[in-house]
């Protein structure tokens, strides 16, 4: 008995030791991966906010702000910078906003999709109820709905116009981020290159502009290597930059004015506004530049993880920036005449050239954050049909959110070069930059108000406190930026209005096109008359007919059979349905149903993609789709002989085996026709598969009706038509083989 007890105890010891070792190795790997991502995020996420010390003080004092003998104005600016950095990036984004991710994705569109899915709110929520089988739609533990969330939901349900306004606000924030993608590289690189004038005072301006243009071309050329390679290349540069500016900051603080630490007291904010007056309010347009890139922390979330971004900011970026601003303020308190290029003037003579070189390279890195964010947000908009079709390339097999968009990359490069060559003035670019930054942040705050109430189901007091604390500060900065519209701020508005107009036009035209197809879809009676007795010929093979009609048959098919009375042995009407989730598992992607009697072999297949999914391989797509149809027929084998009168359709929830060996078994929602002869249909499917597969797509021309207004005709016929002709063609975007494609021309009058 004693021996048995000892044996059991030793067995438990071995088991516990094994579990402890496994847990230890798992945690080590987890921390190692997280720290590696945190290190890479320095080169991608934090480049923009890290290079802001180059131009914050210069832009702040570029107006009529005057100094006084007590240094209160300089200390007041430092106090504003400190509390702005603490409240917005640290408190708002790191603590709160990063927690509102959409299955790991961030940005204004991710917040909107989260509201659409979890709160059934917005214009993309119409088909959420039928997609509750998706694992990505699972909200986790149910949260009790509050009275405030019910009232808000009722308000949005009653007023459809409020949902349109909400989408417009989201698109406005998105357009401002894209505008940032143009202004950030221009501002950063030009500010750094201008530092060379400290030593080469006689250098003509055209040479600094030329150097800035060469650097910008090099930056955008590197983008096709992908975020992970760029991040690994840029991270050590950014780390060296942060260590440089923090070291210089410590030296300047100790050497020139250690008393600058008093500026951490919010009392100096009050003293600043009291002594500076309206000029102090106007200078906020320069102070806000200290938080440029804060939105990129959230927008670039899909490239990294919450924990890695939080570690990098709190442990490295935030303390280094505070030290840098302290040192610059300490230097200025003793050298008020050096305001024009205060950052470079504050660098000790011994290390000037090394720091200048690092600064120039760091500005290139600094632009990477907003460029990556622009790619991510445009990819999300494109997937939800709010942006014209563009080529999206996934550059990493591990981090799904790392994307590169060639067309957008080169357009950004051309626009950046135009801004640098056209303006040549960092003050004017900075004014435009500040307006874009504050607008995006305010949009995020408004969306977070809805998320706190309708998704997190917190009390209204918490949401109101969030808006009051952060929204009031952002409104203050926004008002100061609006006051500088005539001094360059108009540039940001022009960029954002153009992008917003393009997105709204594309979304409006696409909705009208889909609405036309839904109202003119082919009725079932016409399909029942398509037989040999009516002159129709069936040819061997499978044809995938792409349409936007669910359920039903698109008008394009009726147009085809009217002019060419023959079609394939098996027809599968394929509808690509974008969802407001980042990714849809392959084994949950295809939803199959039958159209008409079984002898016609007509099927409907809804293919669901998340806004981060990309179809890469047409052959793999064909295999998955046909295997899903076969599984659909096989799953109805038990009921095939039973039959139902009148061709009754039934909805079944059942467990289906996934296609891949590594996928988990998932519950898939099926619409199944109960008929006779399933084994015969499976044989016909296999024979048709061997005969070959063709694709049919509509080559449609969308025009406004003759009775439409001139504005509607201009938007649909001119703008939307121009965008459709110049974006990627649908067959290219979907990866359809050109040799297997049948195009059907048709005119839609919407």
Automatic annotation (TrEMBL):
Species annotation: Dipteronia dyeriana
A GO molecular function held by the record: potassium ion transmembrane transporter activity
Cellular location(s): Cell membrane; Membrane
Keywords for this protein: Ion transport, Membrane, Potassium, Potassium transport, Transmembrane, Transmembrane helix, Transport
Residue ranges annotated for the K+ potassium transporter C-terminal domain, each copy included: 540-749
Keyword Membrane belongs to the record: yes
Membrane topology: Multi-pass membrane protein
Residues annotated as domain K+ potassium transporter integral membrane: 37-528
Ranges that cross the membrane: 73-95, 164-187, 207-226, 233-254, 311-331, 351-378, 399-421, 433-453, 460-478, 490-511
UniProt KW Ion transport keyword: yes
Chain's role: Potassium transporter.
Similarity annotation: Belongs to the HAK/KUP transporter (TC 2.A.72.3) family.
Alphabetized Pfam families for the sequence: K_trans (PF02705), K_trans_C (PF22776)
A Gene Ontology term for the protein's cellular component: plasma membrane
Record-given protein name: Potassium transporter
């Amino acid at each position: 008995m004693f021996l048995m007890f000892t044996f059991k105890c030793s067995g438990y010891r071995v088991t516990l030791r094994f579990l402890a070792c496994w847990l230890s190795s798992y945690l080590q790997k987890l921390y190692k991966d997280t720290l590696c991502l945190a290190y890479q995020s320095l080169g991608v996420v934090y480049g923009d906010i890290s290079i802001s010390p180059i131009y914050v003080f210069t832009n702040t004092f570029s107006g009529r702000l005057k100094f006084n003998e007590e240094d209160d104005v300089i200390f007041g600016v430092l106090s504003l910078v400190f509390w702005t950095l603490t409240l917005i990036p640290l408190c708002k984004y790191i603590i709160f906003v990063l927690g509102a991710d959409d299955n790991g994705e961030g940005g204004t569109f991710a917040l909107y999709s989260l509201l659409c899915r979890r709160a059934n709110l917005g214009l993309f929520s119409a088909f959420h109820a039928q997609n509750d089988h998706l694992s990505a739609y699972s909200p986790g533990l149910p949260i009790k709905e509050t009275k405030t969330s019910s009232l808000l939901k009722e308000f949005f349900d009653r007023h459809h116009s409020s949902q349109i306004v909400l989408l417009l606000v989201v698109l406005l924030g998105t357009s401002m981020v894209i505008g940032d993608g143009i202004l950030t590289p221009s501002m950063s690189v030009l500010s750094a290159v201008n530092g060379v004038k400290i030593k080469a005072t006689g250098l003509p301006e055209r040479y600094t502009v030329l150097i800035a243009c060469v650097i910008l071309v090099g930056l955008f050329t590197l983008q096709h290597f992908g975020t992970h390679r760029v991040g690994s290349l840029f991270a050590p540069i950014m780390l060296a930059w942060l260590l440089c500016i923090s070291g210089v900051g410590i030296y300047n603080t100790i050497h020139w004015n250690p008393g600058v630490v008093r500026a951490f007291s919010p009392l100096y904010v009050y003293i600043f506004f009291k002594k500076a007056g309206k000029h102090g309010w106007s200078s906020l347009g320069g102070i806000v530049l200290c938080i440029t890139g804060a939105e990129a922390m959230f927008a670039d979330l899909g490239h990294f993880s919450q924990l890695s971004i939080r570690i990098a900011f709190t442990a490295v970026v935030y303390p280094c920036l505070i030290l840098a601003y302290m040192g610059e303020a300490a230097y200025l308190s003793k050298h008020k005449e050096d305001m024009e290029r205060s950052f470079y003037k504050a660098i000790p003579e011994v290390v000037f050239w090394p720091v200048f070189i690092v600064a120039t390279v760091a500005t290139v890195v600094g632009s990477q954050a907003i460029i990556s964010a622009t790619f991510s947000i445009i990819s999300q908009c494109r997937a939800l049909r709010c942006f014209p079709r563009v080529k999206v390339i996934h550059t990493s097999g591990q981090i799904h959110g790392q994307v590169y968009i060639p067309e957008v990359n080169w357009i950004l490069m051309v626009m950046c070069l135009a801004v640098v060559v056209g303006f040549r003035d960092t003050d004017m670019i900075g004014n435009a930059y500040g307006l874009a930054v504050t607008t995006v942040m305010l949009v995020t705050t408004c969306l977070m108000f809805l998320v706190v109430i309708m998704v997190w189901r917190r009390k209204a007091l918490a949401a109101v406190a969030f808006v009051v604390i952060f929204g009031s500060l952002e409104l203050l900065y926004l008002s100061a930026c609006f006051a500088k519209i005539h001094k360059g701020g108009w540039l940001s508005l022009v960029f954002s209005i153009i992008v917003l107009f393009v997105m709204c036009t594309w979304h409006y035209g696409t909705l009208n096109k889909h609405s036309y197809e839904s109202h003119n879809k082919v009725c079932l009676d016409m399909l029942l008359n398509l037989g040999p007795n009516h002159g129709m010929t069936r040819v061997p093979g499978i044809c995938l007919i792409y349409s936007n009609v669910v359920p039903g048959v698109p008008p394009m098919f009726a147009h085809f059979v009217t002019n060419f009375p023959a079609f394939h042995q098996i027809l599968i009407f394929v509808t690509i349905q974008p969802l407001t989730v980042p990714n849809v598992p392959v084994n949950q992607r295809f939803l199959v149903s039958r159209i008409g009697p079984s002898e016609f072999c007509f099927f409907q297949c809804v293919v669901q993609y998340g806004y981060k999914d990309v179809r890469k391989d047409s052959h793999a797509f064909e295999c998955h789709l046909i295997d899903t149809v076969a599984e659909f027929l096989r799953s109805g084998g038990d009921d095939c002989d039973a039959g139902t009168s009148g061709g009754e359709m039934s909805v079944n929830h059942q467990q289906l085996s996934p296609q891949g060996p590594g996928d988990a078994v998932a519950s898939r929602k099926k619409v199944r026709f109960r008929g006779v002869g399933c084994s015969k249909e499976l044989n016909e499917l296999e024979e048709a598969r061997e005969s070959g597969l063709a694709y049919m797509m509509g080559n449609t021309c969308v025009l406004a009706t003759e009775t439409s207004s001139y504005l509607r005709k201009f938007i649909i016929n001119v703008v939307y038509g121009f965008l459709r002709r110049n974006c990627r063609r649908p067959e290219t975007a979907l990866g359809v083989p050109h040799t297997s494609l049948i195009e059907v021309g048709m005119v839609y009058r919407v």
